Amino acid sequence: MTRVTMGMRTSLDGFVADASGDSSPLYPDLDRIAENAVVKEAIERTGAVILGRNSYDMADEDLTGYEFQVPIFVLTHHPPNRGPKGENESLSVTFVSEGVERAVELAKAAAGDLDVTIIGADVARQALRAGLVDDVQVGIVPVLFGRGKRLFEDGGTDRIELERVRVIETDVDTDIRFRVRGGQRGPL
What is the CATH code for 4-182? Predict the structure, then answer.
């Protein structure tokens, strides 16, 4: 059964980018991160990816060598005029402007028996609020930003129950995987 997982790296204080919008301190050594067992597992289990437009733009229209060589669905109100570099028979990019529900629907169809991974704080929050996320994977990096863009920007008043599935500690980060138990959805 296809599962939908939102996957993000955060600072210890819960930020996905610092006050200037820089997320590079969360990725201090890309080669070591690529060797991380959690990252390897995600690549093997993922059949499609949903990106927010900001995450897509960080690639500067070049997905050559992107770790996920699968269909990618970019949630955006303003699709670019051209597609990215790096598309091939495994990696294709589709821009979706009909909302997160449609992006998840398309990604699930493309993923087959594999999972869908959501990357990008805004789109992850939208999917979680809509009840479309099965698992939450958070890599906590030992750095404090103090301010910036939070993974869960607006705490709201509604609660989503999570069940901790596993914790994996490395010298680079601490990865925690949660299963969404259900319950109410609402502002985050």
Answer: 3.40.430.10
**Which residue type is seen at 20?**
S
> pTM, whole model, 2 decimals?
0.89
Tokens 């927010």, located at residue: 52
Tokens 């087959």 found at? 112
In this predicted structure, the answer to whether residue 34 has a pLDDT above a threshold of 80 is no
- DSSP sequence for 79-98: --SSPPBT--SS--EEEE-S
How many angstroms separate the most distant Cα atoms in the chain? 44
Count of H-run helices and E-run strands, the chain: 5, 10
Distances (CA, A) of 143 to 38, 107, 173: 20, 33, 10
| Choice among 63-67, 116-120, 130-134, 146-150 with the minimum mean pLDDT | 63-67
Q: Please calculate the CA angle 84-85-87 and round it to the nearest 5 degrees.
A: 85
Q: Degrees (nearest 5) of the Cα angle 113, 119, 120?
A: 155
d(C-alpha 51, C-alpha 55), whole Å: 6
From the list 7, 16, 1, 53, the residue with the least C-alpha distance to 141 is 16
Domain boundaries, the chain: 4-182
